[in-house]
Amino acid sequence: MPNYKDGNEQILNDRRPTDPEFYQVGASFASPEDEHYYGLGQNQEGYLDHRGHTVQCWQDYNATGGQSVCVPFLVTNKGYGVVWDNPSKTTIRPGFNEQTTWTSEVGNRVSFFVIAGRTTDEIYAGYRLLTGPTPLLPKAAYGYIQCKQRYRSQDELMSVAKGYRDRHLPADVFVVDWFYYTKMGQMDFDPKLWPDPSAMNAQLHQMGYQTMISVWPRFVPGTRFYDTILKNGWFEHLADGTPTNGLPYDRAGSDIDTTNPDAAKWYWGAIRDHILSKGFDSIWLDETEPDLPPNGSYFHAGPGTEFFNIYPLTHTAALYDGFRRDMPNKRALSLSRDAYLGIQRNGVIVWSSDISPTWDTLQRQIPTGLDFTASGIANWSNDTGGWQYLPAVHHPLHRPLLDPSDARDNVGGYDDYPELYTRWFEYAAFLPIFRTHGSRNENEVWSYGKQAEPILEKYLKLRYELLPYLYSAEYNTWKTGAPILRALFMDFPKDPRVADIGDEYMLGPAFLVAPVVEQGATSRRVYLPAGTDWYFYWTNQRVHGGQTITVSAPIDTLPLFVRAGSIVPMGNLIMSTAEPQKIVKVRVYPGADGDFTLFDDDGKTYGYEQGEDRVSHLHWGNGSAKLTHSGADFWSGADDAIVEIEQYKEPANIAPADLQRGERPLPVGTGTNGRSLDSAPQDNVPPNPVTPIGPPTGGQSGGAPTGSSR
After folding, report:
1. Does the annotation mark 289 as catalytic?
2. For the chain, domain boundaries
3. What value does the mean pLDDT of the chain take?
């Protein structure tokens, strides 16, 4: 058994098969007690730090808490990550008995990569180099994706699309869910319900929308492609060659085996010719586990017990490679329920599967998403409000903060569901991908009552105003591999109190987001990481880090903070990314020097890979109180941006800054207490919404929050 040592300290043992009959392989690493562990794909049990937990790395729809997704990339707070190169079912036990052990059920060798970095982002740069970059998705994907289970006809979908425009609400992508077809795998449209999808898509494109449509890997016997796939041996199959046929309780067809390159190329061609040819822009690749037990099943790549976990990678690659080959001027986009090492290179959004519409699920989504993006895959999402059907009756412990009476046709007897959906929507607006989905009768912004509607509108519009910031952060992910959705350990490695905070996160370099996840709560505790000052977004109140505070959070207020030194470009409100967007504000939060790379391009093609884009480097000099920029012009003349210096109380040594490029200053808007002259009034936020816990404001001690509190 080979031993690996650092000086006299043993840090790794290999466990290798000693005879041909031994197929289980593994390794063990030293685990100091102050080492913490993140990533490993998607685990929905509600914790962030994997230390002391057992993780089953497996594509499992029925896992505890919700779908588990296997991405065997473990990132530590000690300057390294481990990529485990084995796609069989793998068990990881981080931090048990001062060891972290990896055990894979099947393998003929031990193979792994150790990626070292001085910062967490250097580790992700190494992962990018090893497994591939994250291409930019169509800009529309970063706006708002509207869906429900399901729009049952072309007329219903068009009515909802017009409803958004009639209400002057932004949206970008409308989704056609399953059962638009006559049979699973037929790749057709029920002519009674979807009489002319090409005309529908043409009209939606004229309205500024894009469309996504669900395509499953299953093909039912008797459908038009089944015999072709069977004859070529392109189905996942049993040992005798018989195609697998759904699940014991759901004999709904056989899965195409996209681990076979020929099958993958054919599958793309069928989607291109029979779906995308109707004007759809992107594909929802559902059930990419595939949702079949692997024992006894075989792929072109090999036995399911050995290769089951790679199916999401090859399945999404079929689509991405086809787009790049046959539609080179159109960015690929697919929505996948599963993932594996390297899937980020396939232009994929991964969502957390068919989750429940409960407060407990909302709480667990936050650490779930943070560990997933810590696995090197940036574009994660969930079904806002949960996917499963609502219970007939649900009476909360506390009086609902929103009146459900005018939404009864939609929420039934779930008294606090408008409140839950609103809190979830606030959180979802600050995810890399903002999408709604679920099994409600209606699922639009106006579907949850008159009290909820203006709050949902507020966050929907804010999402679009922040698109210049968000799109630029996604550009940084493409360049560096660093995720935009960031657990606090990534940015504050010197603060030990952030190691297991799983209910707060950073979105890009500027925003600390602390969603309210308890029913009836109108405040919550927030830990502000040490080493920087923070601004409460809604009032610009400035607070020192390194302390836990109580934040007032009425139902329309998401606890949202901005790191001192941040530069946040904001655009005018647009109805979709099909419209050009101007930079109308550049918000600066003094207290430290800051830099931001502002990026834009056509949002549709891969021209940015050849430098067909606009990039401007913004710099805030805290000592000089000047914001300067170099590179492309994003504003000129009548389109000059307003520079807002976001200070609650303006320190004597900080004056309103000007934005300079050469000799051309840009206008500055500031008002009393450092508030911008054109700042919108804030709704229902008390004058002093931030209260320290324990030490006074400015103290450098205080514990991390354990959750929300009233």
Report:
1. yes
2. 3-116, 139-471
3. 89
